[in-house]
Design goal:
This protein is α+β, with helices and mostly antiparallel strands. It has a domain at 3-191 and 198-233 and 364-402: Hypothetical protein af1432 (Orthogonal Bundle). The protein has helices spanning 21-30, 33-36, 58-77, 84-96, 106-112, 116-125, 130-138, 142-150, 158-163, 169-182, 191-197, 214-232, 235-256, 268-273, 280-283, 288-298, 304-314, 330-346, 351-354, 390-393, 397-400, 413-423, and strands at 3-8, 12-17, 198-201, 206-210, 320-323, 355-358, 361-362, 379-381, 387-389, 404-405, 408-411. The chain has a 4-stranded mixed beta sheet with strand order 3-4-8-9. Strands 5-11-6 form a 3-stranded antiparallel beta sheet, with helices on both faces. α1 runs parallel beside α4 (84-96), α10 (169-182) packs across α12 and α13 (235-256) runs antiparallel to α17. The relative contact order is 0.11.
Amino acid sequence: MAQKVIRDPVHDVISLQTDLPVDRLIFHLLACPEFQRLRRIRQLGMASLAYPGADHSRYSHSLGVMETARQIIDQLGRSFKIDEMDRAACLAAALLHDLGHGPFSHVFERVSGVDHELLTSRVILDPGTGINRTLCDFDPGLPTRVVNLLQAKPGRTYLSDILSSQLDADRLDYLLRDNLMTGSQYGNYDLRWMLQAMTIEPQSNRLAVTWKGVSAVEAYLQARYHMYRNVYFHKVVRAGEGMVKLALQRAKRMAVQDRLDWPRRDDPVYKTLLGQQLTMEEFSELDDIAVMHCFKVWSRSDDHTLASLSHGLLYRRLFKTIDLTRVIDPARLEAIVAKSESVINSAGGESAYAMFYDQPNDTPYKITSPQHAAASEIVVLEADGSVGSLADISPFIDGLVQQLTFRRIHVSEVWRGKVESAIAGLI
């Protein structure tokens, strides 16, 4: 038996039996240049500024999502017959779901306007990519089948739920992985027990859990809440991400004005800043390393604003945080932000690049109407065989449906004192 073994910090051993067609497909997809690129995209963007261990990649996460999806399918396969082509498409989609992510995760996407989900589909469907050729070698219709699954077309089933839902393989992996790599101890939950409780609700053909898995799901949702509160929305992480956005916006502005000396006009970073479409070969070169190199060059720029932001990102000279979370009134918030901007501008600064207002928010568990299939609730099969929603069964859900929100001003150290003094009477 030809066996390839990958040692993973979350799932321990990920084994691929390359004499089995689906495992061989996954192994060949791993070797494609478009997938190897994910080694050079950090999973958590700027989180290592707050958690030094958080340098893990989209590559390791994507591999973990595939393994999680495989464990879910194997569990379901003990009670339900699963078509081999469905299994292949689902595992390939789980592995490839993040192919379109740009540098620094979602930050670069917001500046460039590039949609990572559309780019993922393009990589999979483009005949010139190694990913497409590998999928077609397995079955000519597989690329389209994978994209349709990722987009939940023509309708949602347990397979699309495995890929995207409130209980999908993506979330199940990234919570454990991000928890482990940050060392935060906030994201642990019992994945093994949850897997044992997973099933298919026959009438809707959707992913569900049996009643014995409710406690594990509750722990998972609480882990998600704490990871957002303490890791993803950490003030240092948000300050770093905001500075990346400002630096890229400044570089984009200079590029439009033909004042950006670096990178070259034919460089993927430059072209992406200007909204130009990249070839698949160019896209494979667009990674954290390319943008980080730009920060190194820009830190010596004649443009003081770009140089200051880039230097701060390279040497962790980050904006300082003024917490406004307890300021609820929108009018007061607007006045505080306006006063902060005015103080900086009147003193000769440029508030557009010296500060920003940030209001990250997330709802740990979303309750939607039965007709809203795109984000439906977690379904529970109770001991008597009846079907219920998690919200009707779990006493914890009332707290988890409340939106978690922070309100903050992040401001350059140069202006922090002036801003704090100016808004002291408004907070």
